[in-house]
Amino acid sequence: MPWIKVIQEHEAEGELLDAYHRMREVNIEYNDEFTRDAPPGPPTAHPVTPPELASLNPLSMLYGRQFMMHVMRSPSRLTPAQREMIATVTSSASHCRA
């Protein structure tokens, strides 16, 4: 259970629910096979995701997703796999836990 209050998609309403739906559209726009098909509704137990941490500020949550998808999936000299590898190594070096 996170110490920071989060509102997951299945609990969201209004502006926040709209932001969750728009994040799905961003995933589809970038053809992100890892997250675009995630089913809505009550999730199974999982670590809190970065978008959920921003759930008290829907615009920040949406803009953060757009920025992340642009960095990780837009045309680049690095492949998406290389960018994911860099993110994984950086998280590991920073002692991040999933």
Helix/strand-derived category reads mainly alpha
What is the H/E order? Answer: HHHH
Q: What is the radius of gyration computed over CA atoms, rounded to a whole number of angstroms?
A: 14 Å
Largest sheet: none
Polypeptide structure, described:
- The chain has helices at 14-29, 50-53, 58-73, 80-93.
- Helix 1 (14-29) runs parallel beside helix 3 (58-73).
- The model has no long low-confidence stretch (mean pLDDT 83).
- The two termini are 13 Å apart.
- The longest helix is centred in the N-terminal third of the chain and has 16 residues, at 14-29.
- 51% of the residues lie in helices and 0% in strands.
- The chain contains 4 helices and no strands.
- It has 98 residues and is mainly alpha-helical.
Topology:
Layout: H1 14-29, H2 50-53, H3 58-73, H4 80-93
Helix pairs in contact: 1-3
Write a compact overview of the structure shown.
The protein is built from four helices and no strands. By secondary structure, it is an all-alpha fold.
